[in-house]
Amino acid sequence: MLRLLSFTLFLAIWWIAALLVGGAKLPSPPAVLQVMIAEASSGALFLHLGATLARVALAFTLAMSLGSAIGYLMGRVKLADRLGDPWLILLLNLPALVVIVLAYIWAGLTEAAAIAAIAINKLPTAIVTLREGTRALDRSLDEMASVFAMPRWRAFRHVVLPQLAPYIAASARSGLSLVWKIVLVAELLGRPNGVGFEIGVAFQLFDTPRLLAYSLTFAAVVLVIETLLVQPFEARANRWRPRAA
Q1: What region holds the ABC transmembrane type-1 domain (predicted)?
Q2: Cβ(198)–Cβ(36) under 8 Å?
C-alpha cells in the first residue's frame, strides 16, 4: 500500500512539473507511456532490454564467481592477501569509465570487451566482501569439522558456506546495483544495442520522451528483479541470524 502511494505521489509530482516547465523539457507521463507502447509494439523495447539483461547476467555471474573465489583465498591465505591487496585497492579506486574505455581500446568494440569491463568493475567489491566474511569465520567450527574428520567439500558445504551466505548475499545485492549502472555506460560507449545505446541515441536527438521511456522501463525491471529475486535471496541467506527485538 505504501509503495502504491509512493508511486502515485511520484506520478503526481512528475505531471505537475511537466505542466510547469513544458513538454519540451519534461514530457508528461502519458507522452512517455505512448512512446513505451510504440517501442514495445515494434519489438525494439524488448530487444534492447533483453540485450542489456543478458550482459548484466553474464558480467554479474563472472564477477561473483571470480570475486568469491579470490576473496575466500585472500581471507584464508595471508600471502595471497598481501600479494592481492595492492591490486585490490587499485581496482576499487579506478574509475569505471577508464576500465570500459581501456577494454574497448585493447579488445575492440566487442561483446566480450563490454562484459569483461562490467565484470572487472564489479570484481573488487565482491572480493572485499568475501574476504571480510572469510576472516570472520568461526575457527572453532573448523576445528570441530577436523575432529569429526569431515571431508573438505562436506565441511565447506555445511560449515563454511552457511557462515559466508550473508556476505555472498550482501555482495550480490551491492554488486548488482553497481552492474545496473555500469552496463548502461558500456552500451552507451561501444555497443550497437541495449538500453544504454538507446539512451545515447535519444540524447543525440534530444528526444526526451524516448530517453525517459527506456530509462523508466529499465528502472521498472530493476525494481522487479530486486523485489522478486534479490530480497528473497538475502532473507534466506540471513534466516539463521537472530532478529532484533
Answers
A1: 49-229
A2: no
Question: How far apart, in whole angstroms, are the C-alpha atoms of residue 212 and residue 27?
Answer: 9
| Burial class of residue 12 in the structure, from the number of CB atoms within 10 Å of its CB (0-12 exposed, 13-18 middle, 19+ buried) | exposed
DSSP string for 180-226: HHHHHHHHHHH-SSSHHHHHHHHHHTT-HHHHHHHHHHHHHHHHHHI
> For residue 82, which amino acid is it?
R
Residue 22 per-residue DSSP state: -
3-class state of residue 38 by DSSP: helix
Which residue is listed with cell 585490490? 88
Tell me the domain boundaries of the chain.
28-237
Q: Is this model's pTM higher than 0.85 or not? A: yes
Angle 161-190/44-76 helices, nearest 10 degrees? 140
Q: What type of residue is 168?
A: I
> Residues 63, 171: contact at Cβ < 8 Å?
no
Q: What are the CA-CA distances from residue 13 to residues 25, 36, 92, 216, 237 (Å)?
A: 15, 20, 37, 15, 38
The CATH superfamily label for domain 28-237 reads MetI-like (1.10.3720.10)
The per-residue pLDDT for range 94-143, each reduced to its tens digit, is 999 999 999 999 999 999 999 999 999 999 999 999 999 998 887 777 67
For 138, phi then psi, to 5°, come to -80, 110
